């Protein structure tokens, strides 16, 4: 055997290992690409959860899904399930028993860093808001949380403010000694045909309560439907011990980091459309620990 061949053997072995590595890498890449090839933008959603989603596509999360799907040139499909305990287990993590494929791939609205999913970058941040009828004689001059707390005892006396149990609104009223003004509602009735905070909204519009403290998108949608001439919406400021503002993102399955990253890019590319969508649905936007006045019904 020649000296030349002995000298080239290590190089040949290195080239062979490199070729094998490239082959394996190409195979893995091809597998990854196959896994991410999508025939539809598959959404997990509640069919009766306005202002977020509905089977008829009226919710702003329906519209957001359409915006992102259009960017991917894909149709939107849905797996419907009530937004109750077990929602993620029965949608995002559930497989079709016949195909063994996951039923859907994304939940359009979850809290940032949600413990049951991998979340995208937040695409909006909102805040809880005080909502009352514009013709209210006692609340007509209230334009901030501080002004509500500053009402005299006579003005507060039989005031009734609707809040859900253990919500930031309930904690805030209790913190400031307004126990007697709390009209408590259960957070979820278990009725799949009931949209979020439906009893509070109905009681407010019927005059059975004087005001309500609702999560921003719900408060904004109520004001949008009722009309600015009927309802006043006052975004509330977070304070020590009570947080009102929260960031919202989209959620995907654990391990679907590439899909999460792709969604992040789509959210960035469509940020102007998303901002316009949220404004159209009257979602009050939070900035830091407060909220802007944009998106309120009384601007």
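^ structure tokens above, recovered residues below v
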């Amino acid at each position: 055997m020649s000296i030349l061949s002995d000298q080239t053997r290590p190089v040949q072995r290195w080239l062979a290992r490199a070729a094998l590595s490239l082959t394996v890498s190409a195979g893995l890449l091809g597998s990854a690409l196959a896994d991410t090839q999508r025939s539809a933008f598959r959404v997990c959603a509640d069919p009766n959860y306005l202002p977020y989603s509905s089977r008829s596509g009226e919710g702003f999360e329906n519209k957001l899904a359409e915006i992102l799907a259009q960017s991917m040139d894909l149709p939107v499909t849905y797996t419907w399930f009530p937004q109750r305990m077990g929602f993620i287990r029965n949608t995002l993590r559930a497989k079709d028993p016949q195909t063994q494929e996951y039923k859907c791939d994304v939940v359009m609205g979850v809290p940032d860093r949600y413990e049951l999913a991998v979340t995208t970058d937040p695409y909006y941040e909102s805040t809880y808001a005080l909502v009352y009828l514009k013709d209210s004689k006692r609340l007509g001059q209230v334009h901030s949380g501080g002004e509500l707390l500053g009402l005299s005892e006579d003005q507060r006396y039989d005031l009734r403010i609707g809040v859900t149990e253990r919500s930031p609104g309930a904690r805030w009223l209790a913190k400031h000694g307004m126990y007697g003004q709390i009209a408590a509602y259960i957070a979820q009735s278990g009725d799949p045909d009931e949209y979020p905070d439906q009893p509070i909204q109905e009681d407010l519009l019927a005059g059975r309560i004087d005001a309500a403290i609702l999560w921003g998108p719900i408060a904004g949608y109520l004001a949008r439907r009722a009309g600015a001439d009927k309802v006043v919406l006052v975004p509330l400021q977070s304070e020590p011990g009570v947080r009102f503002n929260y960031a919202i993102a989209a959620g995907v399955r654990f391990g679907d980091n590439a899909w999460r990253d792709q969604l992040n890019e789509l959210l960035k590319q469509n940020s102007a459309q998303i901002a316009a969508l949220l404004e159209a649905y009257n979602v009050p936007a939070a900035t830091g620990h407060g909220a802007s006045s944009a998106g309120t019904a009384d601007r």
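The chain has two domains: 41-125+246-287, 126-235.
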